[in-house]
Amino acid sequence: MTELSASPPAADGPSTPARRAPTRTPEFEARLKKRYAAERRFKLAGLSAILFSVGVLAFLLITMTINGIGGFQRAEMNVPIDFTEAGLIADPVAMAQPGAAQTLEAQGLPAIVEFFAEEQLGAAAADEISDTAWRLVADEIMADPAILNGTVTLSLPASPNLAAGLAGEGSDEMKALAARLVADGKLETKFDAGFLQRADATDPQQVGIWGALKGSMLTMFVTLILAFPIGVMAALYLEEYAPKNRWTDLIEVSVNNLAAVPSIIFGLLGLAVFLWLFPNMRSAPLIGGMTLALMTMPVIVISGRNAIKAVPPSIRDGALAIGASQVQVVFHHVLPLALPGILTGTIIGMARALGETAPLLMIGMRAFVATPPDGFTSPATVLPVQIFLWSDEIDRGFVERTSAAIIVLLIFLLLMNGLAIYLRNRFEKKW
Amino acid sequence: MVTVIHPNLEDTDAKMSARGVSVYYGDKKAIDDVSIDIPTKYVTAFIGPSGCGKSTFLRTLNRMNDTIPSARVEGEVTLDGEDIYRSKMDVVQLRARVGMVFQKPNPFPKSIYDNVAYGPKIHGLATGKTELDEVVEKSLRRAGLWNEVKDRLEDSGTALSGGQQQRLCIARAIAVDPEVILMDEPCSALDPIATAKIEELIDELNGHYAIVIVTHSMQQAARVSQRTAFFHLGKVVEYGRTSDIFTTPLEERTKDYITGRYG
Amino acid sequence: MVEHTVKAFDEDITRLRGLIAEMGGLAEMAIQDAMEALIKGDQELADGVVKRDKKIDVLESEVDKLSVRIIALRAPMADDLREVIAALKIAGVVERIGDYSKNIAKRVGKIEARNHFEPLTLLPAMADIAAEMVHDVLTAYAARDPVLAREVIATDNKVDAFYNSIFRNVVSYMVENPATISSAAQILFVARNLERIGDHATNVAEMVHFAATGNYPPDEDR
To answer: Measured between CB atoms, which of C2, C75, C214 is closest to B219?
Structure first.
């Protein structure tokens, strides 16, 4: 084939010396070195930032753990009780009934416990047994009435003063007593599983986190079922259906601002509106949930809108072109693809709601609630409020319990986030 | 300016026709008084330089311009004689009768089976597993994709190659048994072999559906179509048999464009 | 005429036209040189015509190659395509015109006593017309001028008329001067060649018309 392209233009001629390309001069190489140095500095800065953040986080976790470990333990005394001498009557049928503890109390169980404590541990120690220790014995009997036939060594909680003594604080008298009992093998610090099963109490030895935990769970549940559907629906409507005019702009600005409103104002709103509507339900998870839902919804709307905006228009076009109606496009195509982003926003919102104290204080969830809530409308408290209340207590025993409660809160948060991340990964689709 | 229409166009049924169609984006006029027929049994190609309005006009045929808030359509566009904009025709039903394949293949992020079955499902054209299986197989066979995917119908549609994805989109469009298929530069994102397969597919579909294809490649228009309309600045300058347009164009602008003298 | 956006395409077309023009020029020259050699009995001139015919053959082969290349690489459409196809066919025809001129030149040595050979004097006029037809038709090709092409087609009548006249003339000369029959026969052959050249020029004109308009000229011109 004949070559048809014109010959290349003549070179500049032998008069021009061979010239290095502009990217091969020494000046260029010097500039290049500077650019790489800037890269390294930037990387270093980033790395330092990460290390700092991780360090702070590690510091927080380690401190909390160290402080809180003690909160999962309590001082207990070993008291052998010979039931054969006690003369208690407890048939299994009666023990299964509610009110069984009262019948045992009527039979004199508290006195029996005190008697044996005195006999085994001495009068001074017997004084330092928790007043409500007999209830534990009653629980044991109710669980297994057969123990009445023999001798059982039960582990009974000590009083706060003795526990303090064991910890090396409080009066010298207590410290001495504690030391003596420990030497005798009668007093030790045991893992307190009941911490996670009991509700609030005045006695730090008797206190439990379950009441607040259950309250938090119920409140979070209410928050989720209110905020999530409303938030997602609002986001869908704003993105897919609302005409682009000044009214929707106004709504968008309002929602954005709502997300930035201090949480205590939502508490005021809850107080004014919800408690006015339901005056009997002060400090109920329902009211608390509604208040927190108001606070969480804007976050879900904003992240939902961004997630929906990120769905490529080609997917929508493809669905529309096949004859899908607007609703079908939204629910069959847009929502599934936007779900990971929406869930991320929900995680953020819910995590914030979990840790909120101020609005719930305003609607009265600050009361001392001795029993775990029965349902959504019974009085309850939540974990952050509980932590706040305990931290206010004078009794020294509450310090470790507070840290333990913080650990429980963190674990709850972790589980909640873990669940949401799992759900998000499951719904993640590549397009 | 009146469209120059070639002679030698025997009377064919017009499946869709446009009369005096103008399309505005806000104040900007994108399509200016276009009147053209889309014959039932042929492939019609729209060619023209960038920005001349061929894609815009294509989208008026299945009311996809409705999704753009500032778009406004004047004039009459009919499908089997019924005006698709003014009459009671439901836009969802219209889009089931007039399908569309896009420039960049856009399969749903679902399985291959679900991609094809989606249309029939939502329109209620096939219910129950057996019927759906049949529709899916028939559509995939027609699109020339069945043998390549029959063993992996549950795989994601997005895991296929570009050419296969486009054939999947065509199968998806076919599954609702349309009367017209609109193709907006279907091969521009594909390599030559995939392109050739799509062109072969268009040849096979020819006669079963009225096909309208917008293309940047004149060679492609010449290869696959029987009728060609040359668009320029929002108007149809010339319309006629493809062989006539490409061997003896009547308008200077058409000639300049197809011989590469444009611009 | 607006240029192609890809300039190399224009360069290809220009080169193609150049080759055709060169072929045409050589063919035209061959006709005139052959005629002059015939009249003057110039054997050297005649040999030159024969030799230069090879050049025309080479050019035809180049036109073939270039046309195929343009079609493969440029995908010409509409009038570009018709021009390339026409160039292919025209090259073939011009090559045959060259061959006819060569044939005329070969007969130079076979005519005796030319100074007194009366019929010889009729030929130059015919050759002029034929050469002019070739010239005009190639001008028409370069200018994509269908009108000029049709004029060339009309001129073929004159060539045919010349041929008929010469034929009658030579035949009667042969009858009267039987001794000159072999030379006179050569004259007939030369006239025949010129008439064929005219026909070929007409072919070229038809192709030029097709390239320019997409249609062959209407029947009455042929």
So the answer is: C75
